[in-house]
Amino acid sequence: MFLRRKLVSFALNYKRLAFKTEWVEYPDIEALYHKLGFEATEKKPDGSPYYCLPVIHDPSTNTTLSDSLTIARYLDKTYPNTPTLFPAGTTTLQVGFIKGFAGTHASTYNIVVFPVWRILNERSQVYFRTTREARLNKKLEDVCTEESWQKTEKDWDDLAALFKLNGEGHEDLIMGDRLSYVDLQIVSVLVWARNCLGEDSDE
Questions:
Q1: Spatial CB neighbours of 140, under 8 Å, sequence gap ≥ 6
Q2: CA–CA distance from 48 to each of 39, 44, 55, 132, 133 (Å)?
Q3: Spatial CB neighbours of 128, under 8 Å, sequence gap ≥ 6
Q4: SS3 128
Q5: Which of 28, 68, 191, 199 has the fewest CB atoms in 10 Å of its CB?
């Protein structure tokens, strides 16, 4: 869950909101929800609860939330005097972009999923391999192929071309001249891949 946790920590840091991180092993996520009385806000394909991270608890409002997008929107609403992730009138546009970006995220996942397993602690390795191989219907070692790399390269090239549509001098951010939630989403995927593959690796 590094990707989503990083996205939320980026959002909290950007908004200059103090927070403390508590690390949880994969097999302990569901038990944590039950222990703290959290309700799962996401569902598996069969309709059963999906217990995932990140989860935040805001003691100032006694609010507990999961799902990165839900958390980011909550932070904007609850702390309006901090830098905004969803400028007025851009939420629909940003959510639509995120749905389109899902393909790039998915192709990157195929490259990163096995390196993710390698850096986990032993208990989480067992859980991660069992659940992901059942979902993917193949061994983690077999997920990344040459075709995976070609698809991922094309997806990121296509995204780079979108940035260039903003024009010279405005190519660093999706909104052109201001940071938004979408930018944090993109950066979190890149940082996730870099940290799992190794910053100095050929990959």
A1: 113, 114, 117, 129, 132, 133
A2: 12, 5, 18, 17, 19
A3: 26, 116, 117, 120
A4: helix
A5: 199
**Which of residues 148 and 49 earns the better pLDDT score?**
148
Is residue 7 within 8 A of residue 184, CB to CB? The reply is yes
Tokens describing residue 126? 């067992």
What's the CA gap between 184 and 153, in Å, rounded? 20
Spatial separation of the C-alpha atoms in residues 45 and 11, rounded to whole Å: 28
Where helices occur in the chain by DSSP H, the ranges are: 2-14, 29-36, 68-78, 91-119, 122-136, 146-164, 181-197
| 173 phi/psi in degrees, rounded to 5 | -130, 150
Gap between the Cα atoms of 67 and 4, Å rounded: 8
CB 149 within 8 A of CB 202: no
Q: How far apart are the first and last CA of the chain?
A: 21
- Contact assessment for residue 174 and residue 86, using Cβ atoms and an 8 Å cutoff: no
β-bridge partners, 64: 57
Which of 44-48, 115-119, 155-159 is least confident?
44-48
> In the prediction, which pLDDT does 133 show?
95
Tell which wins on pLDDT, 64 or 10.
10
> Residue 121 is encoded by which pair of tokens?
């602690």
pLDDT mean over 120-140: 94
